[in-house]
Amino acid sequence: MLRFSLSIILFMMMYSPLHAYFFSIKGNASGLDTEIIRLRCPAWIEDQVVQLGDSGKFSFYGEFEYPLMLSILYGEGMQTIKADMFVMEDIMIDARLFLENEIENIFLRVADRRSIGFKKAKDYMDQMYIARGTSMSTINAIPTRIESMPNIGTDVYTHVYGITEKLNYIYTLKTRYGQHFEQSIFDMEDFRQVPINDERYLGFEAYKNIMTVYNEHKIQESIKWSGNPYPGFKDKVMILEQYAEEIPKVLQFEILKNLLNRYTYTALSTEDKVVYKEKIIRLTTDFPHNADVAKMHDELLSIIYSLENKPAPHFELEASNGVMKSLTDWKGKFILLDMWGSWCKPCRVHNLKLVELHQICKMNDIDVEFISISNDKDRLTWKNAIATDRMEWTQLLADDLFLKNYNIREYPTMMLVDGNGMVKKVAPSISMDDLIHYIYVDSGQ
Hints:
Blueprint: E1 4-10, E2 21-28, E3 36-40, E4 48-51, E5 57-64, E6 68-74, E7 85-87, E8 91-94, E9 106-107, H1 113-132, H2 136-140, H3 156-176, H4 189-192, H5 205-226, H6 233-242, H7 249-262, H8 270-286, H9 291-304, E10 316-319, E11 324-326, E12 334-340, H10 345-363, E13 368-374, H11 379-389, E14 394-397, H12 400-405, E15 413-417, E16 423-427, H13 432-441
Parallel strand pairs: 1-7, 2-8, 12-13, 13-14
Antiparallel strand pairs: 1-6, 2-5, 3-4, 3-6, 8-9, 10-11, 10-14, 12-15, 15-16
Helix pairs in contact: 1-3, 3-5, 5-6, 5-7, 6-7, 8-9
């Protein structure tokens, strides 16, 4: 599926939070493989979903009190193309020809003087990073006050923006690339100039990132002083809730989301598992349009309902030759179940590996039955794909009951079932090493 995104800064002419500033986004996305677009902003917990009209046209009207960085996204994966445009009022987007040149086919209706100045600040910071490199001494030499930047002017928002961009750059070097800095970002002079948990600046991604890290640091310090040497997931959630009045909601959400991602559900205690499930279910209910929450919810369901180390559910399905086949037909044998679809590109690529694995097993007399089960609606397309991919083993067609009982949420999915009908492994792919381990080592053959 195609992907399209535009990163924009909507910047207001005045600074007073007592006024709302209106903007509109209008465009034409005809020819793109999507029915909706999403608007995403650092200051929002949830995406705004905009439905496309019959001709691909769309429009969105909003208001803001403070500067916002807004991304327009579409397509599976929602990847962002950073255009770094700073505009004040209405924008017009034409994405029909975006594959030819995505930037030239984005048309701005307004680009006022203040917006251009803000754009200069962003460009200046980017150029300074490239020129200065990654050492701490050169990074510290990067000026962040807006008056230090040529032909831009003075502004409180661009000052905070510049500082947090710099701090975020340092933090990224440290955490993602292992760069060593003796001083914590919270001990730096630049950080002392940053307003703490101020909603006026949450429209900036860098400010939001730094405030998230700062509040996580504060929570970690509270845990140390609590005297609990082994805090669990529940303990950390309780401390986060104690700071609820001090931390803006969007930052509370980010911290909780990060906390959920750092823990593996299966490794939690029984008590922590209850809280973990409660939090994800609550987030899913409160923010149904947040892509990160939806992903965590799906992953949790996959774990909870995983069939590993459980009996494989019975099935009776039609084979490609028209004969009905059931799981009991292979009783006492190891079975490699392959869930796929002719429409699934990753599955078709995976079929090449599966054919090779099948041939190796035949040549080495490895006693395992290959069974591919497809989620296809068109029988002719399904059979053509089997022939094209040279899948010379049992081919079955899934029904709704099978998909429900086997909890198939992504394709391809593979399961290894032992001679007693127990599911030994569930994974996107199963290797020869896996087969050897479970057939000969684990089973004691």
